[in-house]
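Appendix B, example 12.
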Amino acid sequence: QVQLVESGGGLVQTEGSLRLSCAASGFIFSRYRMSWFRRGPGKERELVASISGATGSTVYADSVKERFTISRDNAKNTVYLQMNSLKPEDTGVYFCAAKYCSGTLCSNDYPYWGQGTQVTLSS
């Protein structure tokens, strides 16, 4: 059974930092692209960052470049999101998601999702 369990969210002051973790189980972790999405209040879900299982290459939303870093530990089946210089607009529920890739070719959709972890910025 596939499980993605996020942790590390919470209440943080503007310009503070948080590190989110997502522990995966039930699939061959290294063969999956792992991504973090978020849904802010009144906003649509958006991709925040993504990391390849095959190459470790990363992709970031423009709004988080230079502030957020996605990483993964294939030995621990865990993906991380280090968030620095947090802003009020970073408030939202953060989800990790996984999709299968054959080398660098990946499926279109993310079939596996976690339940999410809340990140709230206080001024």
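The chain is about 0% helix and 55% strand. The CA atoms of residues 95 and 116 lie 4 Å apart.
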